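TL;DR need structure tokens for one chain.
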Amino acid sequence: MNIKKEIVKESPEFVRDTFNQALINRDNSGLREYKLAKKIRLDQKNQIVQCQDDINTLKKDIKEIKDMFSQILNKL
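>> reply
TL;DR here they are.
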């Protein structure tokens, strides 16, 4: 089956599939930019989550140290 496509006059980056009238974006550079931006956002989100986990671990460690100091001081 050979699909016929027509360039959309108002927006040449789009073509229309004449069989089902679907509008298809041919802007590959825009797609690459979108995917790169999405990957950067995901990486930043993962970095934030990792920083939050690290902070929570540090908070727990500090609490444990405080509790140990408290126990030591109570024994004195």
